UniProtKB/TrEMBL annotation:
Belongs to the polysaccharide monooxygenase AA9 family. CDD domains: LPMO_AA9 (cd21175). Transmembrane segments: none annotated. Residues 23-225 form the Auxiliary Activity family 9 catalytic domain. One of its GO terms (molecular function) is metal ion binding. Keywords: Carbohydrate metabolism, Cellulose degradation, Copper, Disulfide bond, Hydrolase, Metal-binding, Monooxygenase, Oxidoreductase, Polysaccharide degradation, Secreted, Signal. It is found in: Secreted. The lineage of its organism: Eukaryota, Fungi, Dikarya, Basidiomycota, Agaricomycotina. Its cofactor is Cu(2+). This is lytic cellulose monooxygenase (C4-dehydrogenating). It comes from Collybia nuda. It catalyses: [(1->4)-beta-D-glucosyl]n+m + reduced acceptor + O2 = 4-dehydro-beta-D-glucosyl-[(1->4)-beta-D-glucosyl]n-1 + [(1->4)-beta-D-glucosyl]m + acceptor + H2O. GO terms for biological process: cellulose catabolic process. It is an enzyme of class 1 (oxidoreductase).
Length: 235
């Protein structure tokens, strides 16, 4: 039998653990409706256990979050014009926005490509729904993941595909936004002759002072939300 006090402590502790476990990673891709095994097509991130976010937008880990694991993955083939999903290990537990960037492997091999330089373009974003200051809603909040169409005109070849979910619940001070990041490896087939852009470097794309990153989402209720990063390339 537990004395009441230890029981209360246990309940408190398990609530705390539940909160910690409720952070998230993005270990799977969804290709042709099939979900890949965790960390098979996505490079295993440093936080695969802790699920802790990146908060320094200038750090090397802001790109693929693999400085400790040094992980690469197997590259999965995806047809241009088809839907690619990126899923979390549970649900996206925090309110915030998300972006997906891609970079073509300039060495022709996604499994060894580092993603250095201004090679990244945005292919997808999910922001906020605002109504002039009465409410703000985050469509990615509590979602399992996200999905988007690989533009049909994207040139065939191997790419890194990087998701960032920007948790904004404590983003009202500098470096308070929490980035949940991972990079998958895909081989795009049947593509076209599009010219993706604008191209940015990651890290480098953000300073941390953007109005969509340094923001109090609770009060006053934002009247608009400015999605950080370049415009989405739609092919
Ligand atoms: C990528 O797709 C091309 C065309 O189908 C194929 O020849 C190549 O082996 C694939 N590469 C990888 C790494 O899957
Ligand atoms: Cu969290």
């Amino acid at each position: 039998m537990f004395p009441t006090k230890s029981l209360a402590l246990l309940v408190g502790l398990s609530t705390l653990l539940a909160q910690v476990n409720a952070h998230y990673t993005f270990p799977t891709l969804v290709v042709n409706g099939q979900t890949t095994a965790a960390w098979s097509a996505v490079r295993k991130t440093n936080n695969f256990n802790s699920r802790a976010p990146v908060t320094d937008v200038k750090s090397a880990d802001f790109r693929c979050y693999t400085s400790e694991t040094r992980a690469t993955a197997s590259t999965v083939t995806v047809a241009a014009g088809s839907t690619l999903g990126i899923n979390s290990d549970g649900t996206i537990y925090h309110p915030g926005s998300l972006n997906v960037y891609m970079a073509k492997a300039t060495n022709g091999d996604a499994s060894t490509f580092t993603g250095d330089g201004a090679v990244w373009f945005k292919v997808h974003e999910v922001g906020a729904v605002t109504d002039g200051g009465t409410s703000i809603n985050w469509p990615s909040y509590n979602a399992v993941g996200t999905s988007f169409t690989i533009p049909k005109s994207l040139p065939s070849g191997q790419y890194l595909v990087r998701i960032e979910h920007i948790a904004l619940h404590s983003a009202s001070s500098f470096a308070g936004a929490q980035f949940y990041i991972s990079c998958g490896q895909i081989n795009v087939t049947g593509g076209g002759s599009g010219n993706p852009g604008p191209l940015v470097s990651i890290p480098g794309v953000y300073t941390g002072n953007e109005p969509g990153i340094l923001i109090n989402i609770y009060w006053p209720i934002p009247t608009t939300y400015v999605q950080p990063g370049p415009a989405v390339w739609r092919g």
